[in-house]
Amino acid sequence: MGALSFAAPWLLVALAALPALYWLLRVTPPTPRRQSFPPARFLRDLPAVEETPARTPWWLLLLRLVAAALIILGLARPVWNAAQGEAADAPLLVVVDDGWASATDWPDRMAAAGAALDAAARSGRRVALLATAPSATGEAPRPTAWMPAEEARARLAALRPLPWAPDRAAALAALRSWRNEAFASLYVMDGLSHGGDDGSALMAALGDEGSLQVARGVPGGARVLAPPRAEADRLALQIRRAPGGPAAEAAVLAMTPDGRTLGRAVLPLPAGATSAEGALELPVEIRNSITQLVLEGDAPGAAGVMLLDERFRRRPVGLLAAQEEAADTPLTGALYYLDRALSPTAEIRRGTLEQLLSRRLAVLVLADRPLAEGAETQAVARFVEQGGLLLRFAGPRLAERGDSLLPVPLRAGERALGSALSWERPQNLAPFAENSPFAGLTPPAEVTVSTQVLAEPVPRLAERSWARLADGTPLVTFENRGQGRIVLFHVTANADWSDLPLSGLYIDMLRRIVALSSGVVGSEGEAPLAPLETLDGFGRLGAPPPAAGPIQAARLDATSPGPRHPPGWYGTPGEGGERRALNLSAHLPELLPAAPSPSGARETRIGGVPAERDLGPWLLAAALLLLAADLLLSLQSRGLGLRARAAVVALVLLLPAPAPAQPGLPEGAAALATRLAYVVTGNPQADEVSRQGLVGLSDYVNRRTAAGLAEPVALRPGQDDLSFYPLLYWVVLPDAADPSGEAVAALNAFMRNGGIILFDTRNEGSGEGVSLGADAALRRLTRNLQVPPLATVPEDHVLKRAFYLLPDLPGRYAGGPVWVARDTDRANDSVSPVIVGGHDWASAWAVDARGNNPYAVMPGGARQRTLAYRFGVNLVIYALTGNYKGDQVHVPAILERLGN
Amino acid sequence: MAERGAAGAPLPLRAELAAARLPPLVVAAERVAATVMQGVHGRRRSGQGDAFWQFRPYLPGDDAARVDWRQSAKSDRLYLRETEWESAQTVALWRDSSPGMDWSGATTRPTKKERAELLLLALSSLLLRGGERVRLLGGGRGLSGRGALPALAMRMDAQSGPPADEALPRHARGVLFSDFLAPLPELRERLAPLAAAGMRGTLVALHDPAEETLPYGGRVRFEPLDGGEAALVPRVEGIRALYEERMAAHRAGLAALAASLGFRLLSHRTDHPPEAALMALWQALAPQGAR
Prior knowledge:
The complex is a heterodimer of chains A (900) and B (291).
Chain A lengths: L3 E3 L11 H10 L5 E4 L21 H18 L2 E3 L11 E5 L9 H17 L3 E6 L15 E2 H9 L10 H11 L5 E6 L2 E2 L6 H10 L2 E5 L6 E3 L3 E2 L3 E8 L6 E8 L5 E9 L5 E7 L2 H4 L4 E4 L9 E3 L8 E6 L14 H7 L4 E4 L2 H6 L4 E5 L7 H11 L3 E5 L2 H5 L9 E7 L10 E2 L19 E2 L1 E5 L9 E4 L5 E8 L2 E6 L14 H13 L11 E8 L5 E2 L8 E2 L15 E4 L7 E4 L9 E2 L8 E4 L7 E2 L1 H22 L6 H11 L20 E5 L4 H21 L5 E6 L11 E5 L9 H12 L3 E5 L13 H8 L8 E3 L26 E3 L12 E4 L3 H5 L16 H20 L2 H4 L3 H8 L2
Parallel strand pairs in A: 4-5, 4-7, 7-9, 9-35, 18-19, 18-20, 20-21, 21-28, 37-38, 37-39, 39-40, 40-43
Antiparallel strand pairs in A: 1-3, 3-36, 5-6, 8-34, 10-12, 11-12, 12-15, 13-14, 13-16, 16-17, 22-25, 23-24, 26-27, 27-28, 29-30, 29-31, 29-32, 32-33, 41-42, 42-43
Chain B lengths: L10 H9 L21 E6 L5 E6 L11 H4 L6 E9 L2 E6 L16 H18 L3 E4 L11 H11 L14 E6 L5 H13 L3 E8 L1 H5 L6 E4 L7 E3 L2 H26 L1 E7 L4 H12 L6
Parallel strand pairs in B: 4-5, 4-6, 6-7, 7-10
Antiparallel strand pairs in B: 1-3, 2-3, 8-9
Helix pairs in contact in B: 1-3, 3-4, 3-8, 5-7
């Protein structure tokens, strides 16, 4: 196929000299080595028993000849798959589209341009580069000066895709003012029209100058993740691409600020389709911790990253009852059930109507509170018009007198079902309709409604009903008004009129309604928002480029990303400052393909073309290796007595192999101080969290107790000696690898000799569902470990009283069970060798380099973090002293509490 | 001058350290009368010394100052206290300083000369602690006392030449350190005068392991250190057995020579610890009862 070619073929003539070399090598005997030796006398006049062959053995000859041939071949610079460069001497202009659409297949684009540069370098042509996107400093595209191809290669390697669209018109203008002599050109094109410019003018201008080659990627390669639509229990996703693409599958990842993936949705893209729809089903609690949606892949590109700011999360809910004083009475209060249902997921606000509306609210809940005509009604109406969600609950007061802010007109008085004077029985709920936001929820059979307010029969009442009773009367009605919505539950918010507030369905319904509301963004207006973190062309967040400037808050949504305003986070710097997202994909119009190449231009496809490979260095390296082997052999033949060890050392020097970084301490240091240890998981983030956590805990323990802990250490069981450490913290990741046989043996010995392993699955209690699959991974990891029978930590366990008296053992999460060995196990004085939990303690303990706690605790509060640290102290004391504290220290206090 | 070797410590100090693990050496001295000097050997007769030997009745002519009044007061007669006569043996030492001695087969091992000097001084240390006198062959008068070791080391550095000493007392004990690689007739020529002078003693033959095993290979030109004729060996592996045979023959001849001259022959390899050789020397020199 002729894929092999030589850059300096005349050097191959030197191969003819090999026979002469053969002759030379053949006749030269080795020189004797000189060795001083006192009893040399005994070696004189020895009969010649066996001569060292005066001739070089044939295999050594062959080795040397091959080495020489390799050197000649290597110097002749053979190239595999050499790009067929233009034979012309005309200089080459390489035009590269470096906008957002080039990011996904950027390496292929660089390879295509680099191959052209290599070919130009071989034929000695000069090269210039023209990148079509405005640079990060905001300068318009401009071609470089003509330069040797080697120099241009460095410039090319410095190119990066930029998170905005290329400006081909500006590139064309720069080209017109720059043109000098005739040149050939290569246009590495992203295949899209940008802002109505399909690139035909630029290609025509290039074609006029000389031969033109246009390299394009696969059609539809660039994908755009459109802004998602928040629905009640899901995020509706859309992916767009240019027409003509092959059938593919795209996956969208939902990620947290610390880089964890909380969800994944797969969207099938049929062949030729320009968009794909899909949904990411996530509970509201989880959804609120997502800050970005990312297209799965090596380089999603700036258009494949959707940053989700507060509008997707923050849902302040204002609660208002008719009688505030009795509203919180347990079980009977008007707001008791509402508060309990909503407080885990939403921000609850209380106060007078005026106070509530003075701040921005997502949802205003009125529990049987009539609105006074006049100012109150006007204020609430304005709130709804501007996009707020008004959620009302019926009740005796509303039944008596309706007002204008109701989705449907109500009949006066309530309808009692199943009372003494009624033939009707309490009604069940009908299944929810498909178009209702409650679709998918199943009404429990035991939920009955005994009293309700009835809607006047108006046209389209059915369309306005989200939920109905079994007899068809509406239970939940709604009406869109302005940008907002009014929703009415035809029953009370407490259990007076129905069983609904007693069921889990009530919570789900409320959460879905709250999720329907539009989020709230705090600051608006003229306040400038500084760029905090911006996306680069590959879709990675980083420090903003120097040219990035602030945006006025009110104009953020209207700002199109560009060099001055790259996509990313904007807001006020500092902890707790508000952040707003500027997303590229929100400002991209429909994707249209670029114009076809003009006639006379050569069209090539980037990617798939095997990169050309310079074989010369490899041949020279092989020759070097052979010569090194020859050196060793001849040293051996001269009796230098090289041992195998020396040969191995020489070979190791020749072949530099990266030695794996070994965690751990210098030898012996481990025994000098007590320190906590964690098991290396292989995930750098998880390991860093573990390290920070144990650093924070060690500091806390050193501050509060007499224990002195040194810097924690990372361990690999089976490789490192575990015997110096009292406590091993082990984060169980869903993709954790099974421990090796040596690791299992080491861990079993560690536990048998009194060591404690704390397994943390990071998915219990309030963190449930965060680390899916960790439980299965834990079962996998511990399959071969000798774990005793486990039970949840009893109230009187030493772990809860070793230093502090603790009611429960929270970490970053709280509320889940923690397991220890059952008390009946008398081995090691009843000290449990394993503690299993999922509260992500290391994150709660973690202290970063500035001394802050980088991870928020859930559900939150300084108290939870304090308790987490106290658990840590108890754990360390437990690990260091065993059950000694259990029966000694707190006996007086316990007796006192028992009342003796 | 006296500082040698990898350990960095002065050679006398290292020799002392090597000798510290053995009890003071008391040389069996049959020929006491020939060397009439003070020492710690009890001679089973009264004389000059520190240890009590006997009370003897006062005889006319004895010095009145020697009367032991405490003993005399117990009876009517006068007694003199006599101490046991103590005397020391002289041990003559020699180490070969020919160029061939200054060689080691590997950098990790000391040269034969270094080892010989270490053994010589260690033995001297033992002897001096035992109260004996030590002299170098051809190196002037004998030395005694603990402080004599540095002086001995300095003299040893200056000493070179064959083992010959006109001033050697008859019936002295001698210890000779060398590799004894010279041809056997030459050795006999050197040792025979010593034996004729009545010296009995020990030959310590030092060898480098490389001299025994010939651990070389290939084509090698072997050059003796004394400037003799070099030997070109085309293939060392082939003649190793022959070399070992010749070496063994030389050893056997040396043993026969030593036996005929009344010397004891000890062999020591420089890769073995010096204490082993010292122990062998100690046993060779100590009287039967001290073993």
